[in-house]
Fold LysR family transcriptional regulator.
Amino acid sequence: MNIELRHLRYFIAVAEELHFGRAALRLNISQPPLSQQVRKLEQEIGARLFARTNRSVRLTAAGQQFLQDARTILVSVEQAAERAARLHLGDEGELRVGFTSSAPFIAAVSDALSTFRQRFPNVHIQMQEINTRQQLEPLNDGRLDLGVMRNTPLPETLEYRLLLREPLCAVVHRDHPLASWQQVSIQALSAEPFIFFDARGGTALYSEILTLLQRYHIQPYITQEVGEAMTILGLVSTGLGISILPASFSRVRLADVVWIPLQETDALSEVWLVWSKQREVSAAMQHMMKFLFND
């Protein structure tokens, strides 16, 4: 069966006008080709759609049913085309974003998410909290569109762009002798009991902070190992030790925790936006990138 959308439009025009001449004028074509196309449609279907006389045209029972179905088909096609266009423009669809636990506390990220939500309310943002190294596989296989993560070695299949560099800070209890300092050197922390990330947790901050300490020939005295930065903050607030964390976490206000900038100029943590080189960068992804980087 070879029925085209134009056949449906021709048929609907004749069915609504019940006159081939008026239908032809409405369609801006001549009457003979219109009559030929309607006959061809009837042949394809195998049913008479119109009862014709010299003076009148009326729908048969089959024609009445086909009119309802033809209208439904055209509406469905138009809606499908509109949805596809909205997806292409990034006005509709889904955006899947992986993020580390610090990302919501980074102003550039939270502001971009808020702006995107206001500008594109019909795009569903699926946020997945997942640490840096665990984002790599879903970014590669398409389960994530974008990843907000700390700097880490990437496979060749992934691309990144630097989102920001933020300072690392010492985090101490308010009664700690260092709590009143305006700045502190890494060397001053060398003998302190250290609350640190578990090496098995997959967070890039583990290697980033450890590399910084080793650069200054410090082997931290680690007394507690945990999986999340929030747990580190909670333990620091009890006085069990000190730690080093990115400044963005300072937006979490804990009365017993004091944040002290580090003196070293290289005490920085990079935040990246990462995506797959092998997959199409959708319009929704482009919109989010624009808001993240203020492009």
